[in-house]
Amino acid sequence: MSVLAIGLSHRTAPVAMLERVSVTGDALVKLLHDVRQDACVAEAMVVSTCNRVEVYAAVDRFHAAFTSICDLLSVHTGVAADELRPHLYVHYEERAVEHLFSVVCGLDSMVVGEGQILGQVRRALKLAQKQGTVGAVLNELVQQALRVGKRAQTDTGIDKAGASLVSAGLALAGELPGRRALVVGAGSMSSLAAATLARAGVTDIVVANRTFARGERLAASVGGRAVELSAVQEELAAADIVITCVGAGRHVITPDMLTREAFLLDLALPHDIDPAVREVPGVTLVDLETIQESGIGSREGDAVRSVRELVSQELDAYLDAERAAKVTPTVVALRGKAAGVVEAELGRLLMRIPHLDDKTRDEVAQAVHRVVDKLLHEPTVRVKQLATSPGGDHYAQALRELFDLDPKMPEAVREVEL
User: Fold this and answer.
1) Pairing mode, strands 283-287 and 262-266
2) Which three-class secondary structure state does DSSP give residue 249?
């Protein structure tokens, strides 16, 4: 099986397109299952955030899988395939692994180095595990990617190289201390927004959320207060800064709701705030497009270069391990065949000389086993070493030819291992 990654992000599509292809909740689960059920796909995982929608799949045929996944993305997002495909990127095998490592490390984020993507990929894997759409290939790959992402954060300081989307947006708001803020939503992004506001010195924070208890917990964590979502318009009358992170598919703030000057930060896809609010005097609206155009957090520094080196090293290590793993079933099959030959020949020998005592029998058996082990040791060690080089699978093929191994034996061993 080979890894295939197909998707679109802020690098290849305008925010308006990302807004249209956003998939969440039940729609995300349905897409996940439909991809997995395709005849060419053995495993599937979908990463869907405000900045990207990506499908990772373990496939046995590239072209058929590519066509099928593209069509499914079109069906599930409602965007015609001809309109969607120009914005898609495709990575296969080594390039797919490198792309995932880069994504998890924050190198491919709108704000380089932001740490939220690590949790988003982790949640995508957990969802795929829960739905039973991933197996050994993607489980191992994504777990390794998460370890690489964690190492990037702890060893290089990449998470400090660029601000989060919240910080990037608020950087355009001017001075924050002493201003009154309204946070609409209580999810992970809203929690980050509230915490960022509190650290910046905003002491009057109101959280509006559909589920009041959840909003109350978030408000309590930053010394603020919670209100029902229905109270948003009333709270807007006193808010200086408004951050929305709902993504409910409809506008929760419209021009007629605004009666005073305010800075609005819309971090949701689909957008929470009607873009027409920009026509209201004294109102500033910053959304994901504004942040992208501003270039905040996109500058490359020493930490980013260190992470690029880390990704390159980890990619080489992953590919070496993968190539070595591919030759292991052949080595096991060879040793299994050798063990069978040894047992058969010992059986015939001992039948011809039945008078041997048990101690002598054991010594003869051990001697024969040692001879075979020593003869096989060097070539099996070397074939594992050679397997890590490009084209290393040819050495495994040579072993199968030289020792006349049953072609089905290595695959049977691989299935037992998985």
Assistant:
1) parallel
2) coil
Contact criterion met (CB below 8 Å) for 184 and 208? yes
| 319 CB-near residues (< 8 Å, 6+ apart) | 94, 97, 388
Q: Tens digits of per-residue pLDDT, 168-221?
A: 889 899 999 999 999 999 987 888 899 999 999 998 999 999 999 999 999 999
Is the Cα torsion angle 133, 57, 69, 12 positive or negative in sign? positive
Three-state DSSP at 197 gives helix
- The residues assigned a catalytic role are 50
CA 122 to chain centre: 7
In the sheet with 89-92, reading across from the earlier edge strand, the strands are 41-48, 52-59, 2-9, 89-92
CA angle 129, 133, 139 (to 5 degrees): 55
pLDDT per position as a tens digit, 125-166: 999 999 999 999 999 999 999 999 999 988 887 766 555 678
